[in-house]
Amino acid sequence: MTTDLNDNLLAWLKDAHAMEQQAEQMLKAQASRIEHYPELKARLESHLQETLGQQSQIESCIQRRDGSTSTLKDMAGRMMAFAQAAGGMTQHDEVVKGAIAGYVFENLEIACYTALISAAREAGDAETERICMGILEQEKAMSSWMLNHLPTVTRDFLLRSATPGQKAKV
Fold first, then answer.
1. Do the Cβ atoms of 145 and 43 come closer than 8 Å?
2. What's CA 50's distance to the chain center, in Å?
3. pLDDT, tens digit, for every residue of 52-102?
């Protein structure tokens, strides 16, 4: 049995929806624990709002293609985010490792949306292509922000951890 272009596009849109579910949980978990890094917290909260919009946009693409989101994939994404958050809470340098993981995840999203744009173009689905291009720009902006601020987060963590009586973790 062969899978045609439309089946692949729909499956990848469902994957993207699950990926955004995972991103939502990761952003919520990380932002909720941050106390001493206000700029990072604010950017994570801002991107959380973008992520919620992205979920809705991807869901509309899935519905236009007569599909529905995958409960199993969405649940798996949320479970992966929970496991990552639980693991991060045990690390003394959670904020730095979380910033690194956030940057890596943004680049995974960039790759996925780049592929989705190409698949939508091949399928002649201009609306999905347009939506994915908009999301791609948001993910690129977040990736760039994370990379540009990683040195500051790292420096602030190191300064806080070297100062007696200051909490550095988050």
1. yes
2. 10
3. 999 999 999 999 998 877 565 556 555 555 555 545 455 678 899 999 999
